[in-house]
Input
Amino acid sequence: MQVGRPSIQVQGATPPHAPSTNNPRGAAATDDFGAALASAAQTLPSAVSDAQRYAPQPGNSLTFLTPADRQMLAAATGSTISSDGVVQSSVRQPVHPLILEIAMDRESGRLQGDVTPSYLTDLFGKYKHDAALGSSFTDDVLGKALDHLSSERRRREGGEPASNFSLRL
Output
């Protein structure tokens, strides 16, 4: 028995992973499972950082949104945005202009760091009287966004977990 490698002993039957003469995948799939596993492990990335996971993709402004942006926008607009820029909403509607505005500000570099209450109030003030977009930038949406930012700040300051689920005994 070799040290460091698992040993499987099967008595009285042919193991289901026994070598097959007509296996098109070659020796790695039929010979030594440990060697095949070690070989596969070498091709996997050791760790995926947040920067790699949420790296913006050219041509899709919504991928520039940070995870915190996406959470706040979901709370404010009801639309969920995945890290690859896919928008999901319970109601069939165009993408909310607030989502697009924050994404474009991220992409252009005008918005760096966290979204702040002053950034949001300035943004809503800019569009509130706009004939085409004003109906989307309502006090209700602003209130939901500000409430989310406030609750996140309290959560961080209080050391509470990021999950909405908590169990108090």
DSSP finds seven helices and two strands in the chain. Confidence is low (pLDDT under 50) at residues 1-20, 48-52. The helical segments are 27-30, 33-43, 50-53, 67-77, 97-108, 117-127, 139-158. Residues 50-158 form one domain.
